[in-house]
Amino acid sequence: MSTSLTHKILDWCARNLWGLPSEIHQMPLSLLNPEQKLPLKMAPIPVMDVGYALHTDELTGRVKKEPFLLDTREFLKAGERDAILASSGMGKSYLTGILLEEILEKSQQVVFIFDFEPEWYTLKARYDNDNRSFKVIGSKESPWPAVLAIPATADQKQIQDCLNTFELAMAPFIQGLIHLGISCVFDLSSFPDRDKQGMTAVLCELIFRGEYNLQDQDDALHNDCRKIRVAVDEAHLVASQYPEKLQHNSLEAILKIAKRGRKRNIHLLVATQTPASINKEVLKQCNRYWLGGITSHLDYKPNKSIYLAAGLTLDAVQKLEAGTFVYASGLTRQTIVGRTRHCKHGGETKKETTRPIASKSEADALLKEFL
Ligand SMILES: Nc1ncnc2c1ncn2[C@@H]1O[C@H](COP(=O)(O)OP(=O)(O)O)[C@@H](O)[C@H]1O
Ligand SMILES: [Mg+2]
Questions:
Q1: Is the CB of 341 within 6 Å of ligand 1?
Q2: Strand order in the sheet with 228-232
């Protein structure tokens, strides 16, 4: 992107954002700092180094490891829609991290990660650098504007008003992020599920609209279309199979990206620990499945066709170890184990503390204050 064009966009963002209530404009302006280094042109390397393919020798039973490289050129026409399914602790986020690292290292795609934990902030240390920008929205340095706090007791109308304000604030911001190629984590971990769903719905809709409104402003911007990757970890929270569990139309917005994103160069990645709970339409749209260990047959049954198509019986899927997945796409079936991540894994299983537990007298002293 030429420098003058970039400045034009920054100007455009600033002009539009200044028109917003003061509390809102502070956040995007601090992120879209015109002095920030511009993304360098990187030649897209379409081969993802995911880890190793495991091949079992039928005679000796020995397992041989070979590099597993995913050539994304095979998906130029069909688009890329990944579904990562496995029980808690089986390595979904770790594998998601590998795939996102490959995109961030080797392409000019813009990555938007929906984080409900929070665990994705760890990417910033490596990818907010001279070559590209990576921000965490919802972190201490870039908090969500206070105006977005939806009161717990808000009625439907108040919630909708808040979300409308949110949409107004975020629309030019999202357009600017896409245009400049600034990747980010939307950290929604501090919000109740109701607001996670509402904000995800708004953000997905804005991402789907992409640069379109911006392009209307300036014909010079019509020509190219940034490739966007939308990653939703714990996707059942916002794309549940049970619509009554969703208070907002986050499912609709994610489905829209799954079904119609390809034509706008938007590609999806969903990961979930409860494969039975994720919306089947979303799963059906995916064209790359990464199937990891699941502990319950209740998660196997509803997606039996996906597992069987990948050659996985319930018994086989229950035997998969953490970090091992069966990759299934088109006619390809391959058991793989992910490579070591470049970034710290934010979702590390916690070690047990060695801090001593309270003695009876200490506990009684504390409890006396409450009981
Ligand atoms: N390929 C891998 N290599 C090394 N450690 C891994 C790998 N995959 C998962 N792990 C470890 O397993 C644990 C659970 O992984 P995680 O991806 O957080 O699980 P999930 O998201 O499925 O709940 C983490 O401590 C993680 O570091
Ligand atoms: Mg996880």
A1: no
A2: 63-71, 47-56, 332-338, 324-329, 288-291, 81-85, 266-272, 228-232, 110-115, 183-187, 134-137
Quickly name the fold that domain 3-49+80-287 has.
Rossmann fold (3.40.50)
> Which pLDDT score is estimated for 245?
83
Give the residue, by CA position, lying nearest to ligand 1 atom 6: 323
What percent of the chain lies above the pLDDT cut of 90?
61
Peptide linkage before 118 cis (omega within 30 of 0): yes
273 lines ligand 1 (CB under 6 A): yes
- Measured at the CA of 28, the angle between CA 252 and CA 7, to 5 degrees, comes to 110
Question: Which SS3 state, helix, strand or coil, does residue 341 take?
Answer: coil
C-alpha 264 to ligand 2 mean position (Å): 28
* Most informative mutation of 96, 278, 345 for ligand 1 (most atoms within 8 A of CB): 345
Minimum CA distance residue for ligand 1 atom 24: 348
**All structural domains of the chain with their residue ranges:** 3-49+80-287
Q: Which of 185, 227, 225 is nearest to 203 (CA)?
A: 185
Ranked by mean pLDDT, the top range of 34-48, 134-148, 211-225 is 134-148
CA of 155 to the centre of ligand 1 (A): 40
Secondary element (H or E) of residue 121: none
Average the pLDDT over 288-317 and give the result: 94
Average pLDDT over residues 221-249: 87
What is the C-alpha to C-alpha distance for residues 247 and 279, in angstroms, rounded to an integer? 15
For ligand 1, atom 27, the nearest C-alpha belongs to 348
Neighbours of ion ligand 2 (CB under 5 A): 93, 347
For 315, the token pair is 């018994």
